[in-house]
């Protein structure tokens, strides 16, 4: 497991303060409401306004440069990781099609709520196409997963189990906390220290957890147009040389694949290279 050798295991990708909406609603994920779909997301007050750490972009960039055989003079290489949360879903085929068309890899932080059972085989297709599959949550139910550290890890174990028919669970070593690592919604259920505790435990268990530093805000309650998502990405990129872009692959984010050609084209024009999150951390 490459990341275990990484000196950057403790690095955190910071949450972007402008990112208001992250995830799907508890209603969507509730067995009672299933299969009805209600789009919502984290509220502004759920997120930490000032990230508690800095995004260690320069270090992963150098790591990635090393993997491509570049020497240290390429340390300033511009890199972008497109990441998709909350899939697989009915929109995943459209996302995969665009990624294939433009020949860029991406990372999918997936869920397995029951609602998306029928789409789970798509993670195999994504993996076989060269994308990274990473862990997000089985239930994505904040009140359950953040009720205690034990509940959180039970949910992760369940997710691994549900994914195991489609991808090698040994390769699932990266995770993204629902709401991000600096979310405050978890305090309601598990107390003020729960994220700190979970981050420490993730590292002890050999997981690399990853936030984002660019946000498309595509999971906002109101569906955004492809142009609005594109503008959000451009605006929050804000000159950063290493970008981890938060996008969504959920049942309601159908405009995200439509925004992808412009997003990919723009990053290419700006001289960015695309890689998976895992490649960002590889030696
Ligand atoms: Zn999510």
From TrEMBL:
CDD domains assigned to the protein according to its UniProt record, in alphabetical order: CE4_SmPgdA_like
Q: Please name the Gene3D superfamilies in this protein's record.
A: Glycoside hydrolase/deacetylase
Tell me the superkingdom of the source. Bacteria
TM spans (from-to): none
The record's InterPro entries line, in alphabetical order, gives: Glyco_hydro/deAcase_b/a-brl, NODB_dom, Polysacc_deacetylase_ArnD
Q: Which SUPFAM superfamilies match?
A: Glycoside hydrolase/deacetylase
Protein name as annotated: NodB homology domain-containing protein
The chain positions of domain NodB homology read 78-275
> What is one process in the GO biological process aspect for this record?
carbohydrate metabolic process
The record's section on Pfam families has: Polysacc_deac_1
In alphabetical order, the GO MF annotations are:
hydrolase activity, acting on carbon-nitrogen (but not peptide) bonds
Q: What lineage does the source organism belong to?
A: Bacteria, Bacillati, Bacillota, Clostridia, Eubacteriales
């Amino acid at each position: 497991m490459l990341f275990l050798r990484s000196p950057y295991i403790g690095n955190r990708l910071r949450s972007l303060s402008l990112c208001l909406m992250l995830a799907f609603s508890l209603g969507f994920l509730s067995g009672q409401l299933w299969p009805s779909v209600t789009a919502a997301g984290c509220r502004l007050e759920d997120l930490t306004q000032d990230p508690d750490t800095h995004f260690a972009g320069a270090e992963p960039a150098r790591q990635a440069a090393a993997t491509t055989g570049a020497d240290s003079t390429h340390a300033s290489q511009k890199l972008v990781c497109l990441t998709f949360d909350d899939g697989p879903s009915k929109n995943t085929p459209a996302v995969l099609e665009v990624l294939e068309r433009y020949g860029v890899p991406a990372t999918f932080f997936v869920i397995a709520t029951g609602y998306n059972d029928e789409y789970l085989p798509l993670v195999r297709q994504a993996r076989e196409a060269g994308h990274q599959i990473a862990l997000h949550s089985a239930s994505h139910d904040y009140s359950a997963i953040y009720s205690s550290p034990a509940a959180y890890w039970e949910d992760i174990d369940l997710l691994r189990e549900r994914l195991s028919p489609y991808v090698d669970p040994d390769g699932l070593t990266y995770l993204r906390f629902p709401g991000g690592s600096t979310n405050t919604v978890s305090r309601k259920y598990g107390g003020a220290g729960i994220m700190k505790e979970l981050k420490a435990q993730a590292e002890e268990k050999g997981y690399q957890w990853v936030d984002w530093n660019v946000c498309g805000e595509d999971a906002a309650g109101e569906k955004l147009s492809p142009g609005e998502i594109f503008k959000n990405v451009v605006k929050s990129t804000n000159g950063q040389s290493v970008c981890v872009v938060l996008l969504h692959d959920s049942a309601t984010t159908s405009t995200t694949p439509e925004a992808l050609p412009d997003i990919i084209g723009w990053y290419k024009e700006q001289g960015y290279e695309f890689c998976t999150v895992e490649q960002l951390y590889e030696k």
